Amino acid sequence: MNPEDLDRALSAEPDIVPSSGFAAAVMESVRAEATAPPLPFPWHRAWPLAAGLAAAVVWMVASQFGPAAALPGPDVFGWFETIAPMATGWVVSGLLMSIAVTMLSLRMVRGR
Amino acid sequence: MSAQDDAADVAKVLGGDASAFEPIVRRWQGPLINLAYRFCRDRGRAEDMAQEAFLRAYRGLRTWRRDAAFSTWLFALASNFYRSEIRRLPPLSLPLDAGRTVADRTLARPAIDDEHRDRTVRRAVLGLPAKYRDVLTLFYFHEMDVARTATSLGVPEGTVKARLSRGRDILRAKLPRLLGREST
User: Fold this and answer.
1) Secondary structure letter of residue A20 according to DSSP
2) C-alpha distance from A58 to closest chain B C-alpha (Å)
3) Which residue, among B53, B49, B26, has the nearest Cα to B38 in the 3D structure?
4) pLDDT single digits (tens) B11-25
5) B86 with B41: CB under 8 angstroms?
6) N or C: which end of chain A has fewer CB within 10 A?
7) Is B2 helix (H, G, I), strand (E, B) or coil?
8) How deeply is B59 buried, as exposed, middle or buried, from its count of CB atoms within 10 A (0-12, 13-18, 19+)?
């Protein structure tokens, strides 16, 4: 089969006609989409997390600057200083891994 | 004219009038269904895919930047969706002689051969690797326009030309075997 025959076979394809109810079916979906109430924010799931985070922040600040700071207690900033050098390596390698995985995924999705 | 109509209707939809989307559907239902059909070779599935593409277009109307024609944006959106849908659920690979009936044999032989060969060629496109299948499908849908094919796929024109050439080569290499099997 020569290239011209191939072009002719693939370009001369007869069109199919949409069924009579197609546009109506699409508009039904569109109207349902338009009138659907927006999804409510899942406060019942977000509240415990937000409250926990807020409590942790308050506790950290209070433990450093409050009257109890003079008492022996958990030294959060000292702990951060200890793990910072170790954590930096993990963060950088995690970041590089994320970038690599994202690029690979995008490449696969685009079919390149 | 159609481009102006599209822009006016989109403006109305974005202004809150969902029913203004209907003329858009009526204008583009044929091309979108036919494009879907070329990806799946199943009329019912093509309509389902086109319906979902319209719904996605409706949801994403705000993302249409008016530096390109509405149809360009719509075809790119639909092509992306169809390609991912076909990846998710590949079309059933029918036996190559499916759809052929006893009555076919009573027709004039050359007419059968041409029509049958063309159908085999179109079906063979579905068996190509995705990157060649997509380019060939969109290239012939866009009446052999490389630039429009490139825009729909979001790849450079050079990539389209290279994949077209390679896809045609693969197809031509496969066809003698397929057509031979058909004729037995």
Assistant:
1) T
2) 41
3) B49
4) 999 999 999 999 999
5) no
6) C
7) helix
8) exposed
The owner of tokens 């994320």 is A98
Contact B118 A111 (CB under 8 A): no
Look-up of token digits 């004219």: B1
Q: Give the whole-angstrom CA distance, residue B136 versus residue B50.
A: 19
Residue B3 has pLDDT above 60, yes or no: yes
pTM listed for this prediction:
0.69
Among A13, A33, A111, select the one facing B55 at the smallest CB separation.
A33
- Testing the interface with A: which of B12, B14, B24, B33 to mutate, by most A Cβ within 10 A? B33
Quote the tokens at residue B61.
């109307």
Report yes or no: A111 at the B interface, CB cutoff 8 Å.
yes
**DSSP string covering B7-61:** HHHHHHHHTT-GGGHHHHHHHHHHHHHHHHHHHH--HHHHHHHHHHHHHHHHHTG
CB A11 to CB B140 under 8 A? yes
pLDDT, residue B165, reads: 95
8 Å CB contact of B30 and A19: no
- For residues B146 and B128, give the distance between their C-alpha atoms in angstroms, rounded to a whole number: 19
What are residue A16's phi and psi, to 5 degrees?
Answer: -100, 150
pLDDT digits (tens, 9 = 90+) for A57-69: 888 887 777 655 5
Is residue A39 within 8 angstroms of chain B, CB to CB?
Answer: no
